[in-house]
Specification:
The complex is a heterodimer. Chain A is of the alpha/beta class. In chain A, strands 4-1-2-9-8-3-7-6-5 form a 9-stranded mixed β-sheet, with helices on one face. A 4-stranded parallel β-sheet of chain A has the order 11-10-12-13, with helices on both faces. In chain A, strand 10, helix 4 and strand 11 form a beta-alpha-beta unit. By secondary structure, chain B is α/β, with parallel strands linked by helices. Chain B has one domain. Helices cover about 35% and strands about 20% of the residues of chain B. In chain B, strand 7 and strand 8 form a beta hairpin. The chains are: A alpha/beta, B alpha/beta.
């Protein structure tokens, strides 16, 4: 499944509007913002259709996945946008990651916990916010939207140390670039080691460069670490995406692909967008 | 005192919404502390022990309160149990700290909850360290969640 999909979930009392762009979307944030309500409304619509009093507007079928029989339930779903509420512990399992990999569905998962088995993007982590203009009654309907939870660094000071998630081409490039300016650059050899490395470092500021396309499980912890360390995050989709975006590779389709990757990247073939950009770069460089 | 265990904890009650649905008592809604939590987090008013007025959902039963508030209520009335507090957003953190001033509470966290900018006291059970603010808590929490310790 590929493409971006606008979804509107509506009753007489509330409306939630959002867009999903790739195979895995995470919904988290404060309590009482309507996350479980959203999943509940979609579940009621699936069970009772328009007779539920819920309206779900989307080009693709929306459904809910829950309970111990999730594997059986998932078998027959294709080209669905599947919503999973918190409390479903299977989303942390290797089995679930295996089922998502190669699946022809999109998944919207409500959770505050990091899903280490799934490669999800820092750009697809959202919170729900009420956008109703008037806060005072009589308000007929409350309106909510998805908002990005993690923004960009507004200002970056010159780092004293750089940590690169990658240990291959990306690391070679950044090491050359930063060490030319006298800034030590080290490889973390994997995203899960970055937190410990920052924690153990005495020099600040620290710049972390990682593949944003699959860094979603680390981002919350690094944001919180900014309360005690001066850490800046540079999270392009991937190193290959950076090269493609630089214009170094002249291929006529590349600007269109980079402008709307969702239209080209099928989640069934690419677990994470970084895999697609690696193939695109390799093929273009041939 | 607040005690926190970070990471997977088999003895903790993970799906707090299901536990709440099957175990809450009507009289819990009459408690002034519970009513304050509901008002602050859910912006809702307890009309009587079975009825809550929600700005988004209208008149609802206690089972339709937010997942965060339901977990807070469970922590408050059943401090002998350990609940998955990752069902609570950061807007619940101050209530956990307030409860922990009244009684000993142990919670299970599977993410780094932000307890705000002020000082507090919490014991991290993964390595028995006492922390006093987020600056001290985040490194211990992050490493505990990764199965490492300082």
């Amino acid at each position: 499944m590929k493409g971006s999909y606008d979804i509107v979930v509506r009753t007489k009392r509330l409306q939630i509007k959002f867009t999903v762009n790739r195979n895995i979307t995470i919904l988290c944030g404060d309590s009482a913002t309507g996350k479980s309500t959203l999943v509940g409304l979609i579940g009621e619509y699936v069970q009772n259709g328009r007779q539920s009093g819920v309206e779900v507007i989307c080009e693709k079928p929306c459904s809910v996945l829950e309970g111990v029989e999730w594997k059986i339930l998932l078998q027959n779903r294709k080209q669905n946008i599947i919503f999973i509420d918190e409390g479903n512990a299977f989303v942390y399992s290797k089995d679930f990651a295996k089922a998502v990999k190669g699946s022809d569905n999109y998944y919207v998962i409500v959770t505050r916990e990091s899903l280490h088995e799934l490669p999800y993007s820092v750009n697809e982590i959202y919170e729900l916010k009420n956008t109703t203009r008037s806060k005072y009654p009589p308000v007929k309907r409350l309106y909510s939207r998805f908002y990005h939870l993690y923004g960009l660094n507004k200002e970056i000071r010159k780092p004293k140390k750089v940590i690169v998630e990658d240990s291959n081409a990306g690391y070679t490039f950044f090491k050359y670039w930063f060490e030319k300016q006298g800034i030590p650059c080290i490889s973390a050899r994997g995203r899960s080691r970055i937190f410990r490395m920052i924690n153990d470092m005495e020099e600040e500021p620290i710049l972390v460069i990682a593949d944003g396309a699959a860094f979603g499980d680390q981002i919350k912890d690094l944001y919180e670490l900014q309360s005690s360390k001066e850490v800046y995050l540079l999270l392009p989709e991937s190193f290959e995406w950076l090269i493609l975006s630089s214009g170094l590779v002249q291929e006529k389709d590349i600007p269109a692909i980079l402008a709307n990757p969702s239209d080209y990247i099928d989640g069934k073939n690419y677990f994470s967008w970084e895999q697609f950009f690696t193939k695109l770069l390799t093929d273009s460089a041939k | 005192m607040l005690k926190i265990y970070y990471g997977d904890m088999p003895e903790a009650i993970y799906n707090t919404a299901v536990y709440f649905k099957n175990n809450y008592l009507d009289e819990w809604m009459e408690d002034p502390f519970v009513q304050k939590m509901i008002k602050d987090v859910d912006k809702s008013v307890v009309v009587d022990r079975n009825l809550i007025e929600s700005p988004a959902l209208g008149k609802i039963p206690p089972t339709l309160l937010s997942g965060g508030v339901k977990t807070l209520i469970l922590m408050y009335f059943e401090p002998e149990n350990i609940f998955n507090a990752s069902t609570c957003g950061d807007n619940c953190a101050k209530w956990i700290l307030r409860m922990a001033k009244k009684k000993d509470i142990t919670i299970n966290l599977r993410h780094i909850m932000n307890f705000g900018k002020g000082n507090f006291e919490a014991m991290i059970l993964n390595n028995n360290q006492i922390v006093h603010n987020m600056k001290e808590m985040v490194p211990v929490a992050g490493l505990s969640l990764r199965g490492e310790f300082l």
